[in-house]
Design goal:
Length: about 400
C-alpha cells in the first residue's frame, strides 16, 4: 500500500484550490491582466474615481495591445481566448474597478460581439480589427430613458427612405458612448427590431456625457441622441431581426459580470483581511475576535463559491452548453453576494471603510450599478422563476 500523498499547505488566497482547475495558459492570462491592472490602474483609480475622469482612449489602446478587447472572439485580430480565460480577465479587471471591466465588457461582449455575430463580412472587416486593438471604441445602444427592463417597448425607430435608413430616438446609460467611434444601436423598424452599426460622426448623432454619478465614476456613461440620422443600407446588421439579437449580446456580457463581480468582492475581502490583522482594539488585532473571524469566514465561503460557479459556467460556455437561464443564475447570485461581501468588509474597516484610501466603498458603490444593469435582480429572478415553473410572470 503506497504512502498517502502529502497534502499541500492551506492557501488563504485560494482556500479551495481553484487554481488547480486552471491550465498554464489560464494562469498566464490571469497573471498578465492582474499585473497590468496593478501597474496601470490601481495607482490612479482613487483619483480617477474621485474626479469622475478616466483616460478611456489611452487605456483602450493598452488593453487592445494586451489582447483583452473581444478576447473570446475569433478572427479579425481577436485573441480567440476561451470563455474561462475571458472570465479570469474580467475578474482581474473588476478587482481593480468595475468601470475598467465595463469598458472591456461593452467593447468586446456587446459592441464587437454584435458585429461579429450578426454583422456582414464587410462590417466585420470595417470595424472589428480596429476595435480589437483599441483604436476604435464601441458602445451598445439598447436601454432608453423610459424602457430599461422592457426593451421591446423601445421608441427609437428606423424608417426606410429609398435605400437609406433614417434613425430617430434616444438611448440612456450607455457606457463608452461619448468616446465611441461606432455605436451599435437597436431600433424598431417596420420589419421588427434591427441593429445598426452607426459611425458616431454621422450628422444628427450626438452622445452627451452623463455627469453627477455616485457609482461607476471611473467610466464614461452617456446618452445617445439620434436626430434624423441617415444611414446607408449596409449599416443594418443583416444577421438577426427581433429581440433575440440584443438579448443574446446581453447574455454574453452578463457572463463576464459573473466573474467580474467576484473580482470586486475579492479586492474588498482582501482589504478586510489585511486590516483585521493590523487594526488593534482592546489590546489586540480585531482579526483575533470571534465576531470578526465569523465575518471573514462567511465572506470567504461566498467569494470562492462564486468563483467556482463562474468557472463552471465558463466550462459550459466553452462546451457550447451555456443557457441564458444559467447566466441569469450566475449574475443574480454573484453580484448579490459580491455587494454583501463589500458591505461586510466595510464594517470590519469601520470609519476607514468609507475612505478612498481603501477600495471597499468604491467597489460597493460600483456594484450598486452592476446589480441593476444588464438585468436587475428582479428580472433574473423572473427568468429563473419561469424556467423553474414554466409560467411567465413578466406580465
Amino acid at each position: 500500500m503506497s504512502a498517502p500523498a502529502k497534502l499541500p499547505p492551506f492557501d488563504p488566497a485560494d482556500p479551495l484550490g481553484i487554481d488547480d482547475l486552471l491550465s498554464a495558459d489560464d494562469l498566464a492570462i490571469r497573471d498578465t491582466v492582474r499585473s497590468w491592472a496593478a501597474d496601470r490602474v490601481l495607482p490612479h483609480i482613487a483619483e480617477w474615481y474621485e474626479d469622475g475622469q478616466v483616460p478611456v482612449r489611452e487605456l483602450a489602446l493598452e488593453l487592445g495591445d494586451m489582447g483583452a478587447l473581444g478576447m473570446s472572439l475569433t478572427g479579425y485580430g481577436c485573441a480567440g481566448a476561451t470563455a474561462v480565460q475571458y472570465g479570469l480577465a474580467c475578474l482581474e479587471l473588476e478587482a481593480a474597478d468595475s468601470g475598467i471591466r465595463s469598458l472591456v465588457s461593452v467593447q468586446g461582449s456587446l459592441a464587437m460581439y454584435a458585429i461579429w455575430k450578426y454583422g456582414s463580412e464587410e462590417q466585420k472587416e470595417r470595424w472589428l480589427p480596429s476595435m480589437a486593438i483599441g483604436e476604435t471604441i464601441g458602445c451598445f445602444g439598447l436601454t432608453e430613458p423610459d424602457h430599461g427592463s422592457d426593451p421591446a417597448g423601445m421608441r427609437t425607430y428606423a424608417k426606410k427612405d429609398g435605400t437609406d435608413w433614417v434613425l430617430n430616438g434616444r438611448k440612456m446609460w450607455i457606457t463608452n458612448g461619448s468616446v465611441a467611434g461606432v455605436a451599435v444601436v437597436w431600433a424598431q423598424t417596420d420589419e421588427g427590431i434591427r441593429g445598426f452599426a452607426v459611425p458616431t460622426d454621422t450628422p444628427g448623432f450626438s452622445a452627451p456625457e452623463i455627469k453627477h454619478k455616485w457609482s461607476l465614476r471611473a467610466s464614461v456613461t452617456s446618452e445617445l441622441v439620434m436626430d434624423e440620422v441617415r444611414l446607408p443600407a449596409d449599416a443594418v446588421l443583416p444577421g438577426v431581426t427581433g429581440l433575440k439579437g440584443p438579448l443574446s449580446c446581453l447574455s454574453h456580457a452578463r457572463y463576464g459580470i459573473v466573474w467580474g463581480a467576484m473580482g470586486a468582492a475579492r479586492a474588498s475581502f482582501e482589504a478586510a483581511v489585511e486590516y483585521a490583522k493590523t487594526r488593534e482594539q482592546f489590546g489586540r488585532p480585531i482579526g483575533g475576535f470571534q465576531l470578526t473571524q465569523a465575518k471573514l469566514a462567511d465572506m470567504a465561503v461566498e467569494l470562492h463559491k462564486g468563483v467556482l460557479l463562474a468557472h463552471h459556467l465558463g466550462l459550459r460556455m466553452d462546451a457550447g452548453r451555456l443557457r441564458p437561464e444559467q447566466v441569469s443564475f450566475g449574475k443574480l447570485n454573484n453580484v448579490r453576494e459580491a455587494i454583501e461581501i463589500c458591505r461586510t468588509s466595510r464594517t470590519i474597516l469601520g470609519a476607514n471603510g468609507i475612505s478612498l484610501e481603501y477600495p471597499v466603498m468604491r467597489h460597493a458603490t460600483n456594484l450598486e450599478s452592476v446589480l441593476t444593469y444588464e438585468g436587475t435582480v428582479e428580472m433574473h429572478q423572473l427568468v429563473l422563476g419561469k424556467a423553474l415553473t414554466g409560467l411567465d410572470a413578466f406580465r
